[in-house]
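Quick log. Single chain, no ligands specified.
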Amino acid sequence: MPLIEAKNLSKSYGAIRAVRDVSFAVDRGEVVGFLGPNGAGKSTTMKMLTGHLRADAGAAVIAGFDVAEQAVQAKQRLGYSPEGAPAYGEMTVREFLRFAADLRGLADPAESVRQTLELCRLGEVAAQTIDTLSKGYRMRVGFAQAVIHDPEVLILDEPTDGLDPNQKFEVRRILKEMAARKAVIVSTHILEEVGELCTRVVVIAKGEVRCDESRDKFLARGADLNAVFRQLTA
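-> predicted structure:
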């Protein structure tokens, strides 16, 4: 059974159809690169998959649980980092992660925080307030709250956007360590991440899936990935 299923998801904002009948599934061990230009419907699709936005039609299923009908069970198995990694800026990194651990009802929240600080290499800024951090560290804190409960499913919206090369390397390293045990969707517009991180590629444009294939098949389309991307999303 796939851990993530988008079943004919559709969403409109007034007369604008943002997502049109989108379907795909993600199995354990897969890291799916969710690609598309700005306004393609990536974030809207991810918000429906995570239960942050109700679909007009279709269903989102996480680890066998319908996100609309069985929200608690689905979200217990889900880690989500939305675009921009919002957090409470007045909290320290440690306080924010403890807050996330308490919300999740973890058995040993202090130990979960310790492990997550180590995993995400946030120990040196643990005592800093989030609003004093660089963008790279704030993005990493958003990622940390998504993984603190060791979920089966990770849905990450632009997790490396704006990061420097070293910070991108760190996020990719963590994801690669986790990937075999989880189903992961990574929304990105950085085509290099397909080869570096993903096992599969789903391309969306104008709210519709234009491509769903293995990384190797996608990369074999041509040496100029930007040209391939433009052709798929035209």
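The longest helix spans residues 165-178.
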